[in-house]
Amino acid sequence: GKVLVNDQLIERTEAVIDIEDRGYQFGDGVYEVIRVYDGDAFTAEEHLDRFLQSAEKIKMKMPYDKQQMLDFIDLLIKENHLHDGSIYMQVTRGTTSRNHIFPGNDIKPVLTAYTKEVERPKEKLENGVKAMVADDIRWLRCDIKSLNLLPNVLAKQEAMEQGCYEAILHRDGTVTEGSSSNAYVVKDGKVMTHPATNLILNGITRQVILQLCQANQIPVTEEAFQLEDLRTADEIFISSTTSEVMPVVQLDGQSIGDGKPGPLTKKLQTLFQEKIE
Ligand code: PDD
User: Which reaction does it catalyse (predicted)?
Assistant: First the structure.
């Protein structure tokens, strides 16, 4: 397939990234994952706004504006005949002789993007998934969608080894989010999720879910909750671009509610489905 390197759409086999690319050496860059449904990039503008914000937060000047990147996305979808899948996009601080200090303005950031065909995780959305709890050992700027994902990778690997789909993270007992998702509990008909502070990534799916709650009179609060609230929740779900509204039916081997996706989670799934159709 075709991939984007800076503003050039080329064959993947022709793409060259230098071994001293700062993304490769320092994880010095930011990224986005955007879902494509039936040839349309879902909430692309919101993702690109966050992409630009992430770049700004690490003091990187994005080489292209939002409209140019929207055009790149459309081009990638068309050229690769992508119907249902995802777009991965990242920008690094460029290539220079290895040095922690930022390169000068003559060194341009390196933008890369590619597409992938992916089915919606229908079976998991229907039946729910298992999750485990893990320590949140990440840095204090989790609001930045940084390329540095080692703590997330370690947590997800641990989850996989325990037969779980996701690791839900906590800092000293306060639940933050999943290793690659946002986390929610439902208690007495009310949805709760960690506020969008420096301790979580403000998920685009999370923002869609909050809007859906507000528009449909579903009580929701952006409020930190504890591990105890998670373990005794009526329902748990997680959300991300690729996982959508995903029910969690087991936590550390214990059933949540009756061990099936709960009514509020299912209601939000229906509302979300209507948005992507
Ligand atoms: N992950 N929190 C973290 C730590 C994430 O990595 C993600 C997304 C989310 C959900 O954000 P959104 O709804 O905007 O996808 C929350 C992507 C999908 C990934 O790294 O693959």
Answer: D-alanine + 2-oxoglutarate = D-glutamate + pyruvate
